[in-house]
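Reopening this one. Same input as before:
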Amino acid sequence: MTAPDQTVIHVRGMTCGNCVHHVEQALRAVAGVTAVAVDLATGAVRISHGPTLDLTAVLTAIDDAGYSTGAPA
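Same output, byte for byte:
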């Protein structure tokens, strides 16, 4: 069994544990995502996924949850 691919995305606008929950929930609903780990302090979100992950779907899910992506300010 091969290890899943991982992608790290910086998410802006998360300020509390509830924000973390919303981002995790939104990303777990994206096809191909197998695990999500959010670091609230840094805004880094590590996504484990299969080789065919649609990055546009990931970014849309984050946006639809009310957050934005990009390098930390």
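So the earlier flakiness isn't reproducible anymore. For the record, DSSP finds two helices and four strands in the chain.
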